[in-house]
Structures are given as structure tokens and as C-alpha cells.
Write a structure and sequence with these properties.
328 residues; alpha+beta; 3 domains; 6-stranded mixed beta sheet; 12 helices; 6 strands; 41% helix; 12% strand
Length: 328
């Protein structure tokens, strides 16, 4: 993005923030005029403006992201904190302890508010930074339902494979009544593997959903003297339950359990595939989960939930940049 394009983009976003802020003009503590000209990153500009018009007390910069969306609840939280309210006094979807509240306010700038709440909860429960990142890549980063008991169990595990955090959460989501008391990581992984095997054998009625507003990617690979066969990499969306089932069977993971989330618009599943052009079908290499409402790439899983290789991850980053998606 050029400097001029960045400035125009920042100005448009700041103008939208000013319009949103004036909906709460009764909460202004200072005259908003003259309005500063946007310079620097939009979040820094938005934080400076909203802190000026609403703030009696300093606020964490990441909270200003509330004004970059239309989430009125998050905007009211910003105003309340800027005017002296404690985090615990807010009507939050997660009940925060004092330590969680402190960790929430100390969140780095690049986190969204839902991710910041879940991150604070996990850190206070004793989760490592790596485990926090693995959990936030799942639907629990945006779904702030009560998972305290299950996250406490997960945070206390010492031998957890981070590549299996997503599959474990998917299994627990599908089996909400499972009692985790006394269960080890190995015993739960046996249940996950049995569930995956069961899913692979199921036949579901065909369900289709509206494609997400992101573009597919095709990268041609020309033939060379050393490799005379032309090929291509593609990333395309899976838009029905049959495609998810086939992807899950091929990749040996549980993506077929995402039908309801895809149909409701909470998730969008994409497949990175490689194909020789003289062959009809390609092979799946990675399965990619996107959170459309946050324009965020979540989980990226290879066969048997393996981690993506650097080269394959770079392809996903290229596609995400093309589609204006953020990478976790």
C-alpha cells in the first residue's frame, strides 16, 4: 500500500469513527473540535480522538478498536472505562477476576476486544502464550460462551500437543456434557480420534450455504527443463456439507463437524490444493478456517491436523493479503 493510499484509507476510517462517536455526544467530556488530521496508524489516531472526547482516565489503546466497528456494546465499554468504571463493573460475556481484568487492560494493541477477553481468561488460568494463541485460532476467540471449566482443564495440561488444541476444542464443543475431571490428555485424544473415525463414516444430508465474500486464489507453475509438467496451486472455498465431508476424510480431521457454523456464517472453510495440469484432480494440502465477521484466518490444518510448512503458510498469507484478511 502506498503512503498516499494509506493516508486516504486512514482518513476514511477516522471519518467513520467520528460519525460513530457523535452518536454518544452526551458523553463527551471535551469539545471534539478542531478535529485532528489523521496521521499514522488508524488505531493510534482513533485512540487519540476518542480518548480526547470521552476520556477522564487513560484507556488501553486496543480498546479503541471498538470504534472501528459498529459494535455499540464495545463502544459503551470504552466510554465507561475512559470515564473511570472498573472492568468488573461492565456487563461482559466472560466473568473476569481481578487478575483477569488487569490482564485485559494490559492487552497488546493488535488484539480485538473479544480475543483480549479470552486471552486474559486463559493467561489467568495459567495457560502459556503458545496455548493462548492456539485457542484463539479456534472459534473460542470470538465465541465468548462459558468455557471456564474446560479451559481450566486444558491450561493445566503439561503434555498437550498444540496442533491438537483445535481438534480437542471441536470435540468438546460437540460433546458439552463430557466430564473432564480426572481425564488425561491421552484419554481425551483417544476420544477425539474415535470421533474422527466415526465422522468419516457418516452420511449427512446435503447442506449448502452462501459463499463468503473472499476471492479464491490460483497460482500457476510453468513447466521447466527440470520439471516439464505444468502445475497450479489453488485456494477455494468449500460451500456444502459434502465437500466438508470429503475434505475431512482426505485430510483425516474433523472439518465435517463445521457444517452448522458454516451454514450460520460463523465460519468459512477453504482448501489449499496442488494439481498437475495433466491430471483431473488435485490433492488437498491444507484446510483453512476463516472467521468472516472478523475477516480473520483462524485454524490452518494439514493432514492429521499437522502444522503448515513455511512454504504452504506463505501461500495462505498471499491469499489472505489478496482478500484483506488478517492472519492469526
Amino acid at each position: 500500500m502506498s503512503t498516499d493510499t494509506f493516508r486516504r484509507h486512514a482518513r476514511v476510517r477516522v471519518d467513520a469513527v467520528i460519525r460513530r462517536a457523535f452518536a454518544y455526544r452526551e458523553s463527551f467530556v471535551r469539545d471534539p473540535f478542531p478535529i485532528m488530521r489523521p496521521t499514522g496508524h488508524p488505531l493510534a489516531v482513533v485512540h487519540a480522538f476518542t480518548q480526547h472526547v470521552f476520556g477522564t482516565y487513560p484507556t488501553s489503546r486496543f480498546l479503541a478498536s471498538a470504534w472501528l466497528t459498529d459494535n455499540c456494546e464495545h463502544q459503551r465499554w470504552f466510554i465507561a472505562i475512559a470515564q473511570g468504571a472498573s472492568v468488573k463493573s461492565l456487563s461482559l460475556p466472560i466473568a473476569l477476576t481481578r487478575r483477569m481484568g488487569h490482564l485485559f487492560l494490559a492487552t497488546p494493541d493488535h488484539y480485538s476486544i473479544p480475543h483480549a477477553l479470552r486471552r486474559a481468561e486463559l493467561l489467568a488460568l495459567g495457560a502459556s502464550d503458545e496455548l493462548v494463541a492456539a485457542v484463539l485460532a479456534t472459534h473460542l476467540g470470538s465465541d465468548l460462551s462459558d468455557w471456564r471449566r474446560r479451559l481450566t482443564w486444558l491450561a493445566r495440561l503439561e503434555d498437550v500437543d498444540l496442533n491438537q488444541v483445535g481438534p480437542i476444542i471441536d470435540y468438546l464443543h460437540a460433546h458439552p456434557d463430557l466430564d473432564l475431571r480426572g481425564r488425561t490428555y491421552a484419554s481425551v485424544m483417544r476420544l477425539v480420534e474415535e470421533w474422527h473415525a466415526w465422522l468419516a463414516k457418516q452420511r449427512h444430508r446435503l447442506v449448502r450455504w452462501t459463499p463468503a465474500p473472499f476471492h479464491p486464489l490460483t497460482i500457476p507453475i510453468a513447466a521447466t527443463r527440470h520439471q516439464p509438467r505444468a502445475a497450479e496451486w489453488t485456494i477455494h472455498e468449500l460451500t456444502d456439507s459434502r465437500a466438508l465431508l470429503l475434505e475431512g476424510r482426505t485430510m483425516h480431521h474433523c472439518v465435517s463437524s463445521y457444517v452448522r457454523r458454516c451454514a450460520a456464517g460463523y465460519a468459512s472453510i477453504w482448501s489449499l490444493r496442488f494439481r498437475w495440469l495433466d491430471e483431473e484432480h488435485g490433492r488437498s494440502v491444507l484446510t483453512i478456517e476463516v472467521h468472516p465477521r472478523f475477516r480473520l484466518v483462524g485454524q490452518i490444518r494439514g493432514p492429521h491436523n499437522a502444522r503448515a510448512s513455511p512454504a504452504h503458510y506463505d501461500l495462505v498469507c498471499q491469499w489472505a493479503a489478496q482478500s484483506s484478511l488478517r492472519m492469526r
